């Protein structure tokens, strides 16, 4: 199995050597911690087979540094994206030896990467009919963020579609509130987009925001698709990557 590599930009605290800081970061995210461990001794030498490895440290030119770290494949639980992030972007952000740190790149082996997007850019181009044009897609977010009812939302979507846009999406704060119920909104917006398609011949995608609790997001997405939604939106910062993963792996969606 291939291992995971990650690249970080960081600045050590004053008086801390850059190489030392990189190794501290590496240890914190694998088998080490901020103090000596009684559980790591001659009887538990196998632990060190799961140590990370600092592959390189290079100056960034602005007082900061880049380090590339290898994480053993065995410390990852296949398919568990939150756990991947716990390793690559966990406690390191509070590490005392660092003034600042930013994760800039992760390389995953195929065994951990999963199946990837269901559609990707090629699939989206097929949906909107831009396979041969090569042009960029243009989208908009319906405003105001909240306050419009389903019919008002649909009218804004219709005007946007008639203006030539490829994608219309909900704001992240609009989900399933009483003033604009999700299923009614989907039905109204999709009817408006069908009307625009009849007039222009152009298909427009509407990303309805199905962000909700992890125990309800798949059910919410199913209901939206059954109501006619042709695209789904998730606020990944609040719902988490596992919510996106649950939707991507669902056979109905």
Describe this structure in words.
The chain has 253 residues and is of the alpha/beta class. It folds into two domains: 4-113, Alpha-Beta Plaits (2-Layer Sandwich), CATH 3.30.70.150; 120-249, Ribulose bisphosphate carboxylase, large subunit, C-terminal domain (TIM Barrel, Alpha-Beta Barrel). It is built from nine helices and eight strands. It has helices at residues 18-28, 81-88, 110-113, 120-128, 150-162, 182-200, 217-226, 236-239, 241-249, and strands at residues 4-12, 53-59, 65-71, 98-107, 139-141, 167-169, 205-209, 231-233. The strands form two sheets. It has a four-stranded antiparallel sheet with strand order 2-3-1-4, with helices on one face. It has a four-stranded parallel sheet with strand order 5-6-7-8, with helices on one face. Helix 5 (150-162) packs parallel to helix 6. The longest helix is centred in the C-terminal third of the chain and has 19 residues, at 182-200. The radius of gyration is 24 Å and the shape is elongated. The model has no long low-confidence stretch (mean pLDDT 91).
Provide a quick synopsis of the model.
Helix 5 packs parallel to helix 6.
Q: How do the strands and helices of this protein lay out in sequence?
A:
Layout: E1 4-12, H1 18-28, E2 53-59, E3 65-71, H2 81-88, E4 98-107, H3 110-113, H4 120-128, E5 139-141, H5 150-162, E6 167-169, H6 182-200, E7 205-209, H7 217-226, E8 231-233, H8 236-239, H9 241-249
Parallel strand pairs: 5-6, 6-7, 7-8
Antiparallel strand pairs: 1-3, 1-4, 2-3
Helix pairs in contact: 5-6
């Amino acid at each position: 199995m291939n291992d995971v590599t990650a690249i970080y930009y960081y600045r050590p605290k004053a008086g801390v050597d850059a190489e030392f800081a990189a190794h501290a970061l590496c240890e914190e995210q694998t088998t080490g911690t901020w103090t000596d461990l009684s559980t790591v001794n001659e009887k538990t030498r196998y632990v060190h087979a799961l140590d990370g490895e600092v592959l390189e440290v290079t100056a960034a030119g602005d007082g900061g540094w880049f380090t590339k770290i290898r994480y053993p494949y065995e410390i990852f639980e296949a398919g568990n994206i939150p756990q991947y992030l716990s390793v690559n972007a966990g406690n390191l952000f509070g590490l005392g030896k660092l003034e600042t740190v930013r994760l800039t790149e992760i390389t995953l082996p195929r065994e951990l990467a999963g199946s990837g997007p269901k559609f990707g850019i090629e699939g989206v181009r097929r949906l909107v009919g831009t396979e041969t044009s090569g042009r960029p897609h243009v989208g908009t977010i319906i405003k105001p963020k909240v306050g419009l009812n389903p019919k008002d939302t649909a009218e804004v979507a219709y005007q946007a579609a008639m203006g030539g846009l490829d994608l219309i999406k909900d704001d992240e704060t609009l989900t399933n509130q009483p003033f604009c119920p999700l299923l009614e909104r989907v039905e109204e917006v999709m009817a408006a987009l069908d009307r625009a398609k009849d007039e222009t011949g152009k298909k427009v995608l509407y990303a309805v925001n199905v962000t909700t609790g992890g125990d309800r997001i798949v059910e919410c997405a199913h209901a939206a698709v059954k109501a006619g939604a042709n695209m789904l939106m998730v606020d990944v910062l609040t719902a988490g990557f596992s919510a996106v993963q649950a939707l991507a792996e669902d056979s109905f969606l």
